[in-house]
Amino acid sequence: MDLDNKFDLGFFPTPLHKLNNLSEKFTDYQIFIKRDDQTGLASGGNKTRKLEYLIQKALDENCDTVITAGAQQSNHCRQTVAASAVAGMECHLLLGGEEPKEYNGNLLLSHVLGAKLHFTGENRKGEDIEDLKNELESENKKVAVIPYGGSNLLGSFGYINAIKELKDQLLEQNLNIDYIFFASSSGATQAGIMIGLDFYDLKAKLIPINIDKAEAEGFLEQIILDLIHESEQFFHLNKEYRINDIPLERNFDKAGYGNMTGEEKEAIKTLAQTEGILLDPVYTGRAFYGMLDYLKKKKIKPKSNVLFWHTGGLPANFNYGKELF
Ligand SMILES: *Cc1c(COP(=O)(O)O)cnc(C)c1O
After folding, report:
1. Which residues pair with 183 in a beta bridge?
2. Residue 216, pLDDT above cutoff 80
3. Tens of pLDDT, residues 75-97
4. Total-model pTM
5. Domains of the chain and CATH, by start
6. What is the CA radius of gyration of the chain?
7. Tens-place pLDDT, residues 4-23
8. How far is the centre of ligand 1, averaged over its atoms, from the C-alpha of 280 (Å)?
9. Could you tell which of 35, 43, 46, 257 is best to mutate to test the pocket of ligand 1, judged by most ligand atoms within 8 Å of the CB?
10. By the 8 A CB rule, do 72 and 100 touch?
11. Per the omega criterion (within 30 degrees of 0), is the bond before 13 cis?
12. Is residue 284 lining ligand 1, measured as CB closer than 6 Å?
């Protein structure tokens, strides 16, 4: 297990560029964007970086079958099926809820990409993984289980590596970033970014926007802290982290997971209509709403450089047709 042992799934580095029109609207700030919506794997997203490590591990263990779980509109599931296709493995998805009459968005794409779909009703977070694994193993399949959201130590490697990529781009563009905004949900993106900043000695203040209100207060912070401790051990780092060192902005999650409000809709339309860049209703729309709120209310220091890390999610828009109107 090391940072170089990964399976090639995307086009890296993803672009880093300025949002010129948006920066003109907020004259106190220079606004930049990191385009992980453009990773290239079946319409892109942040799970591509995690899957480069998770799929390599499955291949190293001679697996021929992958199982993962998520929501029906899970970007993680869609990219996992695509990654399994590239690696020549069969992919099973455990999806919460009942099978819909018509497939759209990520669910439709997961089907097109060849997923074996299992609708698991009330069990929304992969509770049935062990049963399915046993069943597939009884058919002599060699099964790799990829955790919910791809969030374990190996998944976080994707974003440790992404910070090296960002640092190189900043040097090349002679640029300094003061704040980084992004959507945080299952933990490994944020853990990877935090470890990466230490590891590669890049200084920027993180403002991770919490997406899923359903988690008890402190729960996601604990997951992130555990991942950080695991990788500190792994890489023999010795910076002390406590729960209060984990930043997480919980002011924008009131509507709950997957419920798009007028605020997200306005944020999505703002970026679309100033820069021609598409966000998504669940994650990046909410994170961008949070960032715009910070900029409007000048909650961060003027004259600073701000980065929005776009983590993908485009296909989910097609599941919110009426609400986006
Ligand atoms: C999964 C996902 C996130 C959150 O990443 P985590 O590592 O789960 O915190 C953000 N944006 C999009 C579009 C995602 O699919």
Report:
1. 209
2. no
3. 999 999 999 999 999 999 999 99
4. 0.97
5. 16-45+151-324 (3.40.50.1100), 47-149 (3.40.50.1100)
6. 19
7. 999 999 999 999 999 999 99
8. 11
9. 46
10. yes
11. yes
12. yes
